[in-house]
Amino acid sequence: MNLSKSQTNVLDISSPYISRLARIERVARVTEKERLFNLSIEDGKTLGHLPGQFIMLSIPGFGEAPISISSPPDKGNRFEICVRAAGNLTNALHNLTKGDRLWIRGPYGKGFPVQDIVGKDLLFIAGGIGLVPMRSLIKTVLDERSSYGRMNLFYGVKSPDEILFKDELLQWGKAGNINIQITTDKPHPEWKGHTGVVTTLLPPLKIDETKTAAIVVGPPVMYKYVILSLGDKRIAGHDIYLSLERRMKCGLGKCGHCQINSIYVCQEGPVFRLSDIRYLREAI
Amino acid sequence: MKYRFLLKKGIAVLIAGLLKEFKVYGPVKKDGFPMYGNITAPGDLNLLHSPTHISPKQHLFPQRETLLRFSSGEYPAVEPVVEAEEQALFGVHPCDIHAIKLLDRVFAYGTADVNYLKRREKTIIIGSNCIPDKYCFCKGVNTMTVESGFDLFLHNIGTGFLVESGTQKGKKLLLKYTKTRKANKGEVKKLSQIQNQKKEMFVASINADASTLPLIYSGSYNSPVWERIGSICYGCGSCNLVCPTCYCFDVRDDIKLNLKEGERYRVWDGCMLEDFAKVAGGHNFRKTRGERLRHRFNRKFQYQVDKFGGLFCVGCGRCSRTCLVNINIAEVTNELIEESNKRP
Q1: What is the reported pTM?
Q2: Residue A284 domain-assigned?
Q3: Which of A208, B108, B143, B283 is the most buried (most CB within 10 A)?
Q4: Which residue in chain B has the smallest CA separation from A252?
Q5: How many domains in chain A?
Q6: Is residue A97 domain-shared with residue A193, that is, in the same domain?
Q7: Residue numbers of A between 55 and 74 with CB closer than 8 Å to B
C-alpha cells in the first residue's frame, strides 16, 4: 500500500467496491475493434465464475465498466475477456500490453444454467459481440461434448471483417462437434457465405423442439426477431435463454442503471429465461 | 404516557447539547428558501413548517461520495473509503423519515452498502411536525405521521413541544440535555387537535386508496399521459435531485495531476437524464422523455414497491414543487386513477 492509513477515514468493514489486481498475460487482436485479453489474478485465487457472468473492470483514472467473461470456468487464476474499444475505459484498455495490470471485482450476475441444458440439443444464436459471453458457454459444453445432443451455432455479423474468434470457429466446426453457420447482414465482395440477418438462417433448420435449448446473445435489436423465429420452431420460452445488455455502474443492484421494471439485470440477470421476461415491459 | 413536554426555549438548550457531540443539520432559510443546512449555533435553526426544497437524504447519501482511493505505478493499490461522522438531523418531517426508512432497506438489501450504512449508524434523527403547502400530499400516501425511524420527535403544540422518544439513544439525549416533564392530558389533546386540523389543510390529494396505486400504475403503462407529459418535460432531472427516495448514482474516477493517485467516487445520477440507460453500443433503452417519466413514476408507485414493499413516493411534493414545467406527481397520479376507473 502506498497510501497511509492516516490519509483516509477507513473503518474496519469491507467495501463492495474493493477490487483485485489482474495482470495481462497476453493480448491478441481479434478484429480491428476487439482485443482478447488473457488475465491472471494476482492473488492467485480463482475468479470462480460461471459462463454468462461478468466482472466490473477498471483502470484507475479511466473508470469502471461491466465486461463479460469470455473463457470457460477455470480452477486456476486465469480468465479471458474480449473487449471492443467503444469508450474511455475500453480505449485505455486497448493501449495496455502484456505485464500491465488492471482491477477487477466480481464475478457478478446469474450465468447460463449449464446443468439445465445437459442432454439437450443446443441452438446458439449470436449477433456481433454477443459471441463474446457465448464463447464461455460454448467452450464449457464442448469440454463435455458427449453430455449434449446436436449443436448448432448461427452467427450474424455486420460484415465479414467483424467475425470474432475465426480460428476457433473453424476448429470447432472441423472437429465436427458443432454445426456453424455465419451470415453477414449485407453482401460483401470478399464474402462467399450466407447473406442476411441471423434469423434468415433459421427456417431450413430441422429441430426436435421437445429437446432443444436455444441460447441467444446479441445486440438489443436482435432479440425480438430471433424470439419470433424461435416461436416458429415451437421452442418453449422456458428453453430459451437470453443475455441482456444494460448500462451498469455498480454491479450490486443499487445504482439503478440496469433496471427493467422491478428487476436489476446485474442481480437477476444478465441471463434470463425467455419465459421469465417475455411479458416484462422494456426487457426485449 | 409516551409524550414528554419540553418548553420552547428548551430547543435551544437541546441544540447546544447536541452540538457538543454531533455535527448538526437542520432546516434554515437560505435565499428565502427553506433548506437543510449546517447548524453551528442554536440560533441558526429555523424550525420551518413547510417542506425543505431539497431533502435531508444528502446527509446520508451525499451528492458526491468517495468510495475508493487508488494509487498506480509499480505497486498499485486500492483502499476503501468510508466517510462517516456522528451527526444529528434535526427537524426531519414525517415524509422524510419515511423516505429514510426506505433508503435503509435499499442500501441494506443484497450486498450491503457500507458507505450508506456506516453513515446511517452514526446518525440520529430528530423529527418534527410540519404544515403542508399546496404540493404536499402525504395524507394520500399514508406518510402524514410516523411511528418509528426517529430517535426523537418534536410535536409543536404552540406552548411548547411534546417530545416522543423512538429509541433508547433518543431517550438518553433528551434526559442529558433537556428538562422535560410528563405531558398532561390537555397537551396530548391539543396535539391530536393539531393533527386533525392538519388533515384538513391539504390542497393536493390522491383520489384512490394508496394500496391500489401499484396496480393502477401497472395498468397505466400504455396511457397517453406519458407521451403528453413527456412532450413538455425538459429531461432536466431536477425531480431526481430533490426526491428523498431517488438513489441512483454514477461511479466515476478522478485522478491527480501526478497521474499516480486518485479516487473513485459516486455522484447522484438521474433516470430522467438522456443517457441514463444508454449502453456503449449506442442503444438507449429509454430514449424518450415520456418513457423516462414513466420509469421514474413507476419506480415510486410500482417497481420499488415490488422489491422493497411500501410506496416509494412519500408525498413530499418536492418533484412537483421544483418542476420547471409544472408536472405535478399528484395530478398525474389522479389522472391515471381516473383513466383506470373508466377501464372496464
Answers
A1: 0.94
A2: no
A3: B143
A4: B111
A5: 2
A6: no
A7: 58, 60-65
